[in-house]
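We modelled the chain as a single entity of 81 amino acids. Its sequence is:
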Amino acid sequence: MREHVDLPTVKALQAEWDRHPPVHHLVAGYLGYKPPVKTSGQVVTDIDDYLPALGPMPIMKVQPVDTTAFDAQQTARGAPL
């Protein structure tokens, strides 16, 4: 399995998905499914309160991946999310 995907591969994947969208996207679009809107109360952004319960386990804090640009691109192309 490759660790990185280059731009020609991304373009080829997008072209393939335009011709043959993933089935779960087709079903969601057909059924009119929209993912639930998350409120700020549903997202845990600070784990400091939970760290004592984990004990001496090493924890690396990372920022969540921001996919808004990709989601906007897919919406502009008409692809269901």
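As a brief sanity check on the tokenised model: The chain has a mean pLDDT of 79. The chain has four helices and no strands.
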